[in-house]
Structures are given as structure tokens and as C-alpha cells.
Design a protein that fits this description.
By secondary structure, the protein is of the alpha/beta class. It starts with 11 loop residues before the first helix and ends in a 29-residue tail after the last helix. Its cofactor is Mg(2+).
Length: 776
């Protein structure tokens, strides 16, 4: 780490930011409002530290808008230490309240007066739809409020002139994920974790007693939590406000449940959003569903209402990045509602969803929720409901699915999706066990729809996986492909899968059996596959790292000052160490991609020693396992121990293979499901092109990696990605997450520059074009 970096001359939008916000007299107020959401504290921490970094004063506004209206001791200046050790704390340390006073102009006049007296002209609001709507109104009225205050003699004309514009930026804190214009709101991922933890626990008892469970989750007006949790656990049925079941749903649901039991499935899971309705806008309750199942089918049925459990607990990995980025945009929040900051179209969009539901235009409601919601719903329907065999046109194609490389959480969800989408496309699906070694030995078996039931929530690789490449088994693999008539191949794995793709492509001339569509879906905790920003499994691994770091830091509570040295996996790829360090609040993260020497280590130790002389009692240092041949974990531990004598002591921990284990996170379950389903659609389209033509696939675009880049799924020929790969170190030559290194250093109180590229600017909300690909 470049702990001794000196500030560089800022450029572009960041220079404009510094010009407007840095220096004496500039002040930011931060408040949390409405319902609490896990991750709010992480956002507050990032806002405070980024604000201090640019030289502004930052004020806590306690108890949301009520504190802003009441003023006095509710608005307090924050310092660096004010936000120490809050990353892992749920809820909000500055309190939240629903405020009726702020809804009146008189209340907003009081709030404006309190802000002006302290010189606060930039406001960061963390809350839901109502909170951000209030902030938008407040910003719009600001100049008029100041003029009225001056007229009443409560502020001076000079103050009106000096504080005539209010910069406002909103961060959406809502577990419902009901806000248009953002992929995921603060708290949503945490709520999904709570739901999936409960579902996984319930499934074991339901299987034991052959029970049906009806789970009610939050979402009065938005069915996101219900939909995504249904997708993540493979629920039998889901009820949403935006997409009510068709007329006669009672009979259809009972038929579906009984069919699943006939396939020897020992449990049924039904998920209900608390705001679920039918096509006549009448409520559908969990008790009503229970009575239906008991009366019609006689199944032992239980109802579980999760309630406020979904709001509690420690926030997972997706918790720290938003806050720092939003402070950078404070000066961009102009009075024009279409510029970055408080954007008028986003409120309009949110209100339009409710209007569409009220008018029973449910298709419009789903589309207004956004591409991701619509894609989730379509994927769920396709994977949950199997059409009768007589209604599925046969393709006469056999498609193989194989796992390659180290296991990664979410692999099984990807296999399940591939099998079910393949069957729905009319293909015969074949599972290949134990990687390419098993392929060569003929460990291949046809796999059916019911065979993959319950796979979504299981960790590891049920098919078995090995790191062995196909190179030395080419003849045997080709023979097995002939024997089983394999028409296409889906490979799910990490860097070894990428290398396997290259080997099969390279040997097409000598083995015509390889002249078929071959697609790779990236699955590795290291996130080191070229052609994708994320891989299946890396989110689960990061959650393990962050949770472990939180527990380790907590173990030092009440003791003397202590620094923990944590080693992460990842090979030469520093993704886990860097992103884990960012989310866990690390003081340093050593990675291979950013070379360091003894001077950097010494500088980091000195920096941490100075911090430990304040009220900060715990330090955290992450090290990627292959970041340096000589600066080992033991070396760094001994160096910090020696140099910190008298100030802090040290402990070390090597996380090891616990990063590969455990049940997949909701993100990895859904990501694996959706990316694998998309891969099978691509394979099907290729096979349809050659139907009846006996066509051999020889072009480069028939051997692809399916990755995600800037929210969009992208198929890229492996031959093109070869040029972008560092094969010696098994990493891509360029990695997007390295741009976040400065943010981690700033939040750890280093003096480094933080450049905001033009490409990262906020995008206005746009209606989706007909040909625009659905987002993940």
C-alpha cells in the first residue's frame, strides 16, 4: 500500500468538487430518516470521512428530519473517531424518526434556519421514498425559505447571499428496494440474507415432517424481497403486489404443489409479500393460503411471518461503497432536478408503479420496476413451472454441463438453472461428474427436472469438480462426446474452466467433436476470470471474510489496543483482500496488483501507530496470499508486532478454505441462476441456427465466456479474451476494482488523491428500448 503517497493535483470533476466543497466555511449535514436499514451506518461513516478528507465540516443530524427541525443538541459536529467501529452495526447510530413537522412549511422554515446558523449548505439524506421526496421539496423551496427567514429577521441578508443554494444528495436506505433508478438500495442485501437464513433453516424441518411452509416477507407495495428470495430458494409459488396470480390461481397452485410431492419432494415453500393482492386488488394473506392448502390438499401447513427480523442484524459485504461515492456528488446536486443528486424523474417513476397497480395495469407495473425486476420474474416463472412434455417441442440435441476448478458457492444454482432451461428448450441435459477427468471416464448421466430440486441453496459442487484440464484426455473426451451425442457444452468454473475453453477451441481441427457451441459461466471465489466483472462465489466468500473480520475485531473488545493481520485467498488476484478490506474498514490491504516495499510497510505501521494513540483501539490489515514472495503473513505480523510495541499488540489469522465453504449468499444464488439461464438461451439459439443442416461450429464466436460488464451480460469469444489475460499470474491484465483502492485508503485516513472519472457519472433514468438487454 502506498501509505506515504502525497496528494496529487486533482483533475476533472474531482477538481470541481474540491473547489466547491473544500476549505473553511463549508459544511455537510448527514441524516438518516424513515425506516432503518442495515448498512446505514456504513454510509454515514463514509460520508463523514470523505467530507473530512475534502476539508469540510460534517454534522450529525440526530433523529432524522425531526432533529433538523428541533435543532440545538440534535445537530452536532462529527470527527473521524465519531464513526469508528460502526461498519458492522445494524440500524443507524444517529437515529431515525418519521417527522410530521417537516411536512409543513413552518417546520421546513425551522429546519432551514437551523442549517443556516451552522453554515450547512450540503445535505446528505439516507432514507426511503418519503425521505428523499422531502429532501427534494426542501431543496426546491430553499431560496424561498431563506428569503422568508430574512424577512422575519431570523437570518441576515448576508447569510441569504452566502448560503443561497442547498446541495442535496440522496442515498436510498430501504430494505424493500422499491426505488426507481438504482439497482439495489441500502439494506436490501441484508434483508435478503435474513430471509434466506430463515428459509434454509425451515427447509430442514419441513423435509423432516413433509410440511408446507408459507413465509410472509416485508413489502407492502413492492415485491422485490419476495421475488428474489423465491428465486434464491427455489420456492414453489410466490405472491407479489406487482404481478398477481391469474384467475383460478387457487386450483393451479394446488396442482403445482401436489405435482411436486408426486416427484418425491418432501416439502413445499410458498413466499408471500405482505402487500400481495389478486387481480381485483383484494389482499391475499398468508393465513388465507394456509387454509386453502389444508382444505384442498390436507397437507400439514405452517405460517411464518418474518416481520422486523428482516431489518435487524449485521450488514453483509455490500455495505460500504455507496457512501463515499455519494459525497463526491454533493456539489453536482444542482437546483435543476435532472442533474445528478436529487432527480425528479425517480420519484415520478416510483409513484407511477403504484398508480399502475391501483389501475390494475400489472404488466406496466412490472416494467416500471425496471429491467432487473422483470428479468427476475421471468426467470422465476421459467424455472419454477415445468410444462407438460407434450407441450415442449423436442430439439433432438444433447447438452452437457460440467464443473471445472475449485468449488464456488452458487455452482449448484447455476447447474439447476441450466438443466431446467435446457429441458424447457426441448434439449436432453447430461450431467458430467468430477470435471474433465470424469468426462474422460464416462461419468456422464442424463439429468431431469426433478433431479436438481433443492440444489439452489447448497454449497460446493454436487456434480463434483476438479482442476484437471482436458489436454491429456482429449481423445477420451471426444469419444465420450460421440457416444452420448453431445451437441453443446456448458462449462461452469474458474480460471481452469477458462483454460479448458482455450484447449478445446485449439483442438477443433483434430477433434471435430469439439466443433459445437461451448459456453463458460465464471464461478470462482478469486474473481480472476477475464471477461467478467464478477464471478459466481465471490460474494459468498467476501461475506465470510467480512463476517470473520467483524468477529475478530469484536474479540478484542475491552482489551488493550490490538491489530489483526488477516490472510485471504485469491491466488494472485487481490479482489478478496481489497474488497474485504473496504467493507470491513481495514487500515491496509496488501495485494499483488499494487507492488509494495519495506518503505510502504514502515509507513503503514507508523500511520497505524499514530491512529492508535487516539481513541481508536483496533486495527485491521488484510494480505492476499500471493501478494509478495518475501513479505509473507508471518513477516508482516512480526514487523507490526515489533514496531507497535508499547502502543498495540498483534494477532494473525489465516482464513483458508472456510472462504470456499458454506451456503451461497442470496446474490450468488441469483447471479448463478440468471447467468446460467442466459447461457443456455445462447446455446439454444446457436443450436437452432444449425438445426437440420449438420452445421459444424468453427467460428471464434461459438466458444464464448459469458460475463457481466457494467450491469450487462456479455458474450465474448475466448480467443479475444486471451489477449487480455496474464496467464503467468492467472488474472486479467485490467481489473475494475483497482479504481476503488484510493477510497479504501481515504477511509483509513491516508492522504491520497481520489479521481472520479467522467465514465462514472450518474446516468439519468431512461425508458428501456425494445432491444436493450435485461440487466442482472
Amino acid at each position: 500500500m502506498d501509505g506515504h503517497d502525497s496528494p496529487q493535483t486533482p483533475k476533472g470533476s474531482f477538481r470541481k468538487f474540491l473547489e466547491q466543497l473544500s476549505g473553511a466555511g463549508k459544511a455537510i449535514g448527514v441524516l438518516t430518516s424513515g425506516g432503518d436499514a442495515q448498512g446505514m451506518n456504513a454510509a454515514v461513516r463514509a460520508v463523514v470521512r470523505m467530507g473530512i478528507y475534502v476539508g469540510a465540516k460534517v454534522y450529525f443530524i440526530y433523529e432524522g428530519y425531526q432533529g433538523m427541525v428541533d435543532g440545538g443538541s440534535n445537530i452536532v459536529e462529527a470527527n473521524w473517531e465519531s464513526v469508528s467501529s460502526i461498519l458492522q452495526v445494524g440500524g443507524t447510530i444517529i437515529g431515525s424518526a418519521r417527522c410530521q413537522d417537516f411536512r409543513t412549511r413552518e417546520g421546513r422554515l425551522k429546519a432551514a434556519c437551523n442549517l443556516v446558523q451552522l453554515g450547512i449548505t450540503s445535505l446528505c439524506v439516507i432514507g426511503g421514498d418519503g425521505s428523499l421526496t422531502g429532501a427534494h421539496i426542501f431543496q426546491t423551496e430553499w431560496s424561498g425559505l431563506l428569503e422568508e427567514l430574512a424577512h422575519d429577521g431570523k437570518i441576515s441578508a448576508e447569510q441569504v447571499q452566502k448560503h443561497g443554494h442547498l446541495n442535496v444528495v440522496g442515498m436510498v436506505g430501504s430494505i424493500d428496494n422499491d426505488f426507481c433508478g438504482t439497482d439495489m438500495t441500502i439494506g436490501t442485501d441484508s434483508a435478503l440474507h435474513r430471509i434466506i437464513e430463515v428459509v434454509d433453516a425451515i427447509m430442514t424441518t419441513a423435509q423432516s415432517h413433509q410440511r408446507t411452509f408459507v413465509l410472509e416477507v416485508m413489502g407492502r407495495h413492492c415485491g422485490y424481497l419476495a421475488l428474489v428470495s423465491a428465486l434464491a430458494c427455489g420456492a414453489d409459488w410466490v405472491f407479489l403486489p406487482e404481478s398477481p396470480p391469474e384467475e383460478g390461481w387457487q386450483e393451479n397452485m394446488c396442482i403445482k404443489l401436489s405435482e411436486n410431492r408426486a416427484r418425491k419432494k418432501r416439502l413445499n415453500i410458498i413466499i408471500v409479500a405482505e402487500g400481495a393482492i389478486d387481480t381485483q386488488n383484494k389482499p391475499i394473506t398468508s393465513e388465507q393460503i394456509k387454509e386453502l392448502v389444508v382444505t384442498q390438499l390436507g397437507y400439514d401447513t405452517r405460517v411464518t411471518i418474518l416481520g422486523h427480523v428482516q431489518r435487524g442484524g449485521t450488514p453483509p459485504f455490500l455495505r460500504s461503497r455507496l457512501g463515499g461515492g455519494q459525497v463526491v456528488w454533493l456539489p453536482a446536486a444542482r437546483s435543476n432536478p435532472n442533474e445528478p443528486g436529487m432527480e425528479g424523474p425517480r420519484w415520478f417513476c416510483t409513484q407511477e408503479v403504484q398508480k399502475a397497480m391501483d389501475e390494475r395495469r400489472f404488466k406496466d407495473a412490472v416494467q416500471l420496476r425496471g429491467r432487473s425486476f422483470e428479468n427476475n420474474l421471468n426467470t422465476y416463472k421459467r424455472l419454477a413451472i415445468k410444462l407438460p412434455d407434450s407441450e415442449i417441442p423436442k430439439s433432438n440435441c444433447n447438452v452437457g454441463v460440467v464443473n471445472v476448478g475449485a468449488p464456488a458457492a452458487g455452482m449448484n444454482a447455476a447447474v439447476r438453472a441450466a438443466v431446467r432451461v435446457g429441458i424447457s428448450e426441448g434439449h436432453k441435459m447430461f450431467a458430467v461428474y468430477d470435471g474433465f477427468e470424469g468426462f474422460a471416464k464416462g461419468q456422464i448421466k442424463e439429468i431431469g427436472w426433478g433431479d436438481v430440486g433443492g440444489w439452489t441453496g447448497q454449497g460446493g459442487s454436487i456434480l463434483g469438480t476438479k482442476r484437471i484440464l482436458p489436454g491429456k484426455y482429449l481423445e477420451d473426451i471426444a469419444a465420450q462426446m460421440r457416444t452420448h451425442g453431445i451437441s453443446a457444452l456448458l462449462i461452469i468454473g474458474g480460471f481452469e474452466a477458462f483454460q479448458s475453453l482455450l484447449e478445446l477451441s485449439k483442438n477443433r481441427d483434430s477433434h471435430p467433436e469439439f466443433c459445437i457451441p461451448i459456453c463458460m459461466v465464471p464461478a470462482t471465489i478469486s474473481n480472476n476470470v477475464p471477461g467478467t466483472d464478477l464471478s459466481i462465489g465471490c460474494d459468498t466468500s467476501l461475506n465470510v471474510i467480512v463476517e470473520t473480520c467483524d468477529r475478530i475485531k469484536q474479540s478484542a473488545s475491552g482489551t488493550k489496543r490490538r491489530v489483526f493481520i488477516i490472510e485471504t485467498m485469491g491466488g494472485f488476484c487481490g479482489y478478496l483482500a481489497n474488497m474485504g478490506g473496504l467493507a470491513a474498514g481495514a487500515d491496509a490491504a496488501y495485494i499483488f496488483e499494487e507492488p509494495f516495499d519495506i518503505r510502504d510497510l514502515q509507513s503503514n505501521v507508523e500511520h497505524l501507530t499514530e491512529k492508535m494513540k487516539t481513541s481508536i483501539q483496533r486495527g485491521l490489515v488484510l494480505r492476499n496470499e500471493s501478494c509478495s514472495e518475501n513479505y509473507t503473513t508471518d513477516f508482516i505480523y512480526q514487523l507490526y508486532s515489533e514496531e507497535g510495541k508499547g502502543v498495540f499488540d498483534c494477532r494473525k489469522n489465516v482464513l483458508g478454505h472456510m472462504q470456499q465453504g458454506g451456503a451461497p449468499s442470496p446474490f450468488d444464488r441469483n447471479f448463478g441462476t440468471k447467468i446460467s439461464a442466459r447461457a443456455m438461451q445462447w446455446i439454444s439459439s446457436k443450436l437452432r441456427e444449425s438445426a437440420g443442416k449438420g452445421k459444424k461450429f468453427l467460428s471464434e464466436d461459438s466458444v464464448c465466456v459469458l460475463g457481466i460488464s457494467k450491469r450487462t451480460l456479455l458474450f465474448q469469444p475466448v480467443a479475444e479474451l486471451k489477449k487480455e489475460t496474464d496467464f503467468e499470474h492467472r488474472i486479467p491484465k485490467e481489473q475494475w476494482w483497482l479504481k476503488l483502492r484510493p477510497l479504501m485508503k481515504i477511509l483509513a485516513k491516508y492522504k491520497v488523491s481520489f479521481e472520479v472519472s467522467d465514465a462514472s457519472q450518474l446516468e439519468p433514468v431512461q425508458p428501456r428500448g425494445a432491444e436493450e438487454p435485461a440487466a442482472i
